[in-house]
Design brief:
This protein is an alpha/beta fold. It has seven helices and 28 strands. The strands form eight sheets. Strands 7-4-6-5-9-8 form a six-stranded mixed sheet, with no helix packed on it. A six-stranded mixed sheet has the order 16-13-17-21-20-18, sandwiched between helices.
């Protein structure tokens, strides 16, 4: 295959995520749900917190009893008792009375606000002066203020962080329906590639890509299987692809995607059962010689062998597809920060350029300093804090331009 075909823009490729389905679902114990993707909407079985509770230490009151209270004219209230933590008050507060309460305590009937202890003065065991008025529900969380019964509290496709797990626990869920964690297979190809524990002879290079790409997959909370190094032999590559497709949800082939006489990737993928090539080449730099195929229901990527290109494509293109398989409704947005460009940056119209930059604090805010060096040098990625995204219709960006930098 000596020419590019089906060359797509980055947006065209990203729109293809909908061609792939999320991983199947399972139920897991809530203690194991962190970093998983919720597979179904979670509905509140009751109000949360379920009762009126104090958010400050002080006195629970009927707010109307404090209206007009000030340091010069305090309101005088009779202390009816104390609400202990975890106690359900079995009494109703009468007019002109207050009850001691701690943060988190349940308000008794007849009260609708809490006066902070700092704004009170206890006269004796039976009376208190209030030096500041409160409004209804001040320093109080209402019974359904977090959620009402029947509310969708978490939508399908939500990434479960500690706060989501805490909410589910607070609503009494002991298990959660989640998508299975996807497994990504990584195959390194090339006669010049050797294992990392070997000393490279002239013309050889250690297998950098499979470890760098594994890091991106693990950072995205998915699992990795590395299938080692496959020589430039179509039979070996086909056997490795068939094995990986049988065991994983997505396959990454590192190397073999560029134009040349030893480019077997497209031929091998085309020969696999129920497989079609969706993309062979993207109008981006670095990363133009990228292949995307659909084998059955699974995406198979031919990534550039050049390490920087492979990492940029992984960050900008492959991870959104992995997000789709994980169960996200929309790919996770890439994190961007505003920064002032420190020098002119050239670009070619008709392609999307991703320029590596260092972020530094300047007198007028964050600055983006392009990382100089040839595109194949991995150190340019080591020194980079982010990627400058230059659109297809631009010929570059001028110094001092305020731009958005994609964080690495």
């Amino acid at each position: 295959m000596s020419h590019f075909f089906k060359v797509k823009t980055l947006d065209d490729v990203l729109s293809m995520t909908r061609n792939f389905d999320p991983a199947d679902t399972e139920r897991v114990d809530i203690s194991d749900a962190f970093s998983r993707i919720l597979a179904q909407n979670l509905t509140a079985p009751g109000d949360m917190p379920g009762f009126r509770r104090a958010t400050m230490d002080g006195f629970a009151v009927n707010a109307a009893a404090t209206f007009g209270a000030s340091e010069s004219t305090p309101a005088w209230l009779e202390i009816q008792g104390t609400v202990l933590m975890g106690q359900v008050p079995d009494f109703e507060l009468g007019p002109g009375k207050a009850v001691r309460i701690s943060t988190g305590g349940m308000l008794p009937k007849g009260t609708d606000a809490v006066v902070m202890v700092e704004h009170t003065q206890t006269i004796d065991d039976a009376s208190v002066e209030i030096y500041k008025s409160v409004a209804p529900l001040q320093h109080v969380i209402d019974a359904n203020e977090d959620f009402s019964s029947g509310d969708v509290v978490l939508e399908a496709g939500t990434f479960i962080r500690p706060q989501e797990a805490g909410l589910a626990a607070g609503l009494g869920f002991t298990t959660l329906p989640v998508h299975r964690v996807p497994v990504v297979g990584i195959i390194s190809t090339g006669d010049e590639i050797i294992p990392i524990d070997q000393e490279p002879a002239p013309g050889r290079i250690r297998d950098i890509n499979s470890y760098a790409l594994s890091g991106f997959v693990q950072e995205a909370h998915a699992k990795v299987i590395r299938y080692g190094i496959v020589k430039d032999d179509p039979d070996q590559l086909q056997a490795a692809c068939e094995k990986a497709l049988a065991q994983t949800d997505m396959v990454l082939i590192s190397g073999g995607s560029s134009v040349g006489t030893r480019d077997y990737t497209v031929e091998v993928l085309s020969a696999l059962p129920d497989t079609r090539i969706l993309v062979h080449g993207m109008s981006v730099s670095p990363g133009k010689p990228t292949i995307l195929a659909k084998s059955g229901t699974k995406p198979v990527w031919g990534l550039p062998g050049q390490v920087v290109s492979a990492m940029v494509v992984m960050k900008m293109v492959v991870i959104p597809f992995l997000n789709r398989i994980q169960g996200y409704r929309q790919p996770k947005p890439v994190m961007r920060v505003p920064a002032i460009l420190t020098r002119n940056v050239a670009s070619a119209q008709g392609r999307r350029d991703f320029v590596r930059v260092m972020l530094e604090n300047g007198p007028d805010g964050m600055t983006a300093k392009p990382v100089l060096g040839k595109s194949g040098l991995i150190r340019t990625m080591i020194h980079a804090d982010g990627l400058l995204d230059i659109g297809e219709n631009l010929e570059g960006l001028e110094k001092h331009t305020v731009t958005q930098v994609i964080l690495l």
